[in-house]
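Hi F.,

I've been meaning to write this up properly since the lab meeting, where we talked about keeping a consistent format for the predictions we share between groups. The idea is simple: the sequence comes first, exactly as it goes in, then the structure tokens exactly as they come out, then a line or two of notes. No screenshots and no reformatting. I'm using this chain as the first example so we have something concrete to point to.
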Amino acid sequence: MKVTINDDCISCGLCAEICPEVFEMPDEGIAIVKVEVVPAWLEDKVKEACESCPTESIVIE
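Output, unedited:
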């Protein structure tokens, strides 16, 4: 699984709260994905973050 953040991100921080192993919130700007490929054991947390995103900015491939 690969995951990206699109430009609709409003920097709410939910993704980083739900799955800090994959997402990070910089001091300024949109969320950052810290890994190229999501480990299988984190896929459920990434899906939860995606479903919780208020702007649907998380894209799962």
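Notes:
The CA atoms of residues 24 and 49 lie 12 Å apart.
The first strand starts at residue 3 and ends at 5.

If this format works for you, I'll send the rest the same way.

G.
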